[in-house]
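> call design_seq(struct)
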């Protein structure tokens, strides 16, 4: 519970007037007990610090008492729901506090900072003025943690030219679809050198994965390496309490939710997004109120859309339930353009996720389906428009659940395969623009890949098998090129290639079985092979080519480590696209 600190001049509790502390309960008989509780709170609560947001030139924050101190905000009220007993005392204050329009709680007034800071704070402010004049980053924090931040270069930023180029990439490719930032305020802060350092780092981290950002990265540093290093800097700065303003924390953690690297990358991204939602709840961004900032409204709906996307990526429940949200939707606020269309697709995704909840036996979404043309005109071009198309087709693929025996006559199945073809076609189109650094890009291609694999496994004798194999290999090639920017893409490509080899083994074993007149079935079969349903010929092939065994998991140790494009004896060479497996320019035209 946050308590407003004592006003200036109140040096001790003994000199305070009870009427000053609790005017409402002065006349009540229980005033003494309440006064004691309030006094204890005043004793243990430190004064609210002035605006601790880090500045450029790098200005040291107030020394945190602990790296785990809760965030503070000196200018924004804090939302307190009616389930919290604190709301009872807040609503009984002398000055009525503003309630949200849905009558779910109140906004508590922010803590007031003393205009006469103690000597330590005055010394800190003098140190800040010295920082502004010398531009030397000397953060005021425990020496041990400061040494760690120096060791990882947490306060180091790219050169101004590279920094401005990466920021421009972000605003051109990410902001139109996901307006996480207040563009005008952010640009003004950058121009005045007052932007939050962790926030700027997070923007650079996201933009670095765009193909055109390579020229602005340090020599010899890959996009994935730069993004991972920058993410570690942001996390270290946040852990040290460098940024403690809640709205900035919402944006920083939302941007961290777009970063994924390594086997646990998606899980870490989901954790950051959950933290962003946590801070948004504390600010009451999800609740309707009399005056709503447009940029904060857009930020909330971006969080909601990313939450649905992360639920799909990680296969976990959604963290935001619509019945807990009373703020107007983008459509109700008159939003138009790509952002409104992206939120409409996210709304469909939130409905599709219900197919994957426990107890649901439906194989697909067979009801009315929104058309892409109703969201985006066919003549709409550009990177953002094509990314929205990818998002739409990814949701359409998810609208039919994979199974060993799919219902090929259902509308959801036809929609799934048509969208898989559309995803591959977006990458195969000539002179295709480069896609933005968003996780939906590799995710959509991975969904297309598994769609082709499912039909090849379910119906290998289909007259469309050759076309599906070609599309499958093309999706593998696209993911291998995206591996330059996304670990997830490379892992899925490795599994796809492994599946190709496995299917080639089955085909070759079947040919040998026919040629040998069934003699191959007399070969010894081990218990493990029999349990897996493998005959003697197939088991014999797997003994000769152990790399063709089924993968143990998407991110298992060594998954695909020994597999290149076309590893093993059978690689469907006659169907492989030119240059499959070789690193090429990321234009995805090879297939």
């Amino acid at each position: 519970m946050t308590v407003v600190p004592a006003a200036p001049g109140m040096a001790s509790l003994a000199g305070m007037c009870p009427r000053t502390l609790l005017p409402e309960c002065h006349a009540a008989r229980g005033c003494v007990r309440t006064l004691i509780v309030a006094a204890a709170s005043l004793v243990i609560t430190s004064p609210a610090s002035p605006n601790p947001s880090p500045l450029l030139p790098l200005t040291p924050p107030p020394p945190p008492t602990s790296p785990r101190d809760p965030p503070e905000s000196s200018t924004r009220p804090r939302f307190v729901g009616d389930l919290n007993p604190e709301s009872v005392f807040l609503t009984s204050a002398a000055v009525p506090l503003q309630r949200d329009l849905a009558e779910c709680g109140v906004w508590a007034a922010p803590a007031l900072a003393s205009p006469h800071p103690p000597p330590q704070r005055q010394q800190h402010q003098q140190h800040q003025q010295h920082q502004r004049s010398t531009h030397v980053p000397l953060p005021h924090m425990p020496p041990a943690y400061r040494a760690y931040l120096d060791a990882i270069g947490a306060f180091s930023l790219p050169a101004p030219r590279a920094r401005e180029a990466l920021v421009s990439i972000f605003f051109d490719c990410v902001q139109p679809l996901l307006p996480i930032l207040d563009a005008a305020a952010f640009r003004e802060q950058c121009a005045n050198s007052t932007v939050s350092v962790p926030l700027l780092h997070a923007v650079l981290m996201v933009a670095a994965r765009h193909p055109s950002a390579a020229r602005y990265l340090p020599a010899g540093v890959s996009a994935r390496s730069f993004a991972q290093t920058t993410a570690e800097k942001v996390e270290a700065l946040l852990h040290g309490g460098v940024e403690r303003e809640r709205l900035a924390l919402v944006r920083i953690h939302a941007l961290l939710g777009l970063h994924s690297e390594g086997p646990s990358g998606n899980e870490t991204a989901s954790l950051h997004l959950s933290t962003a939602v946590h801070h948004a709840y504390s600010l009451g961004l999800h609740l309707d109120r009399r005056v709503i900032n447009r940029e904060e409204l857009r930020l909330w709906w971006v969080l909601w859309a990313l939450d649905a996307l992360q639920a799909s990526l990680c296969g976990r429940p959604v963290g935001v339930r619509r019945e807990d949200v009373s703020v107007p939707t983008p459509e109700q606020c008159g939003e138009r353009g790509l952002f409104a269309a992206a939120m409409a697709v996210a709304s469909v995704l939130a409905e599709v996720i219900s197919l994957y909840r426990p107890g649901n036996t439906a194989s697909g979404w067979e009801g009315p389906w929104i058309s892409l043309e109703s969201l985006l005109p066919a003549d709409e071009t550009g990177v953002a428009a094509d990314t929205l198309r990818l998002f739409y087709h990814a949701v359409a693929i998810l609208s039919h659940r994979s199974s060993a025996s799919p219902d090929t006559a259902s509308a959801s199945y036809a929609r799934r395969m048509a969208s898989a073809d559309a995803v591959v076609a977006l990458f195969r189109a000539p002179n295709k623009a480069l896609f933005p650094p968003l996780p939906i890009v590799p995710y959509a291609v991975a969904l297309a890949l598994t769609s082709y694999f499912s039909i090849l496994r379910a119906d290998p004798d289909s007259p469309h098998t050759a076309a599906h194999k070609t599309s499958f290999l093309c999706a593998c090639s696209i993911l291998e090129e995206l591996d330059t920017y996304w670990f997830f893409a490379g892992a899925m490509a490795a599994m796809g290639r492994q599946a190709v080899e496995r299917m080639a083994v089955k085909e070759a074993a079947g040919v040998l079985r026919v040629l040998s007149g069934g003699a191959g079935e007399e070969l010894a079969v081990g218990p493990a092979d029999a349990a897996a349903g493998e005959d003697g010929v197939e088991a014999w092939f797997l003994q000769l080519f152990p790399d063709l065994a089924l993968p143990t998991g998407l991110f298992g140790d060594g998954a695909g480590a020994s597999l290149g494009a076309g590893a093993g004896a059978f690689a469907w060479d006659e169907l492989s696209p030119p240059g499959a497996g070789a690193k090429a320019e990321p234009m995805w035209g090879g297939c």
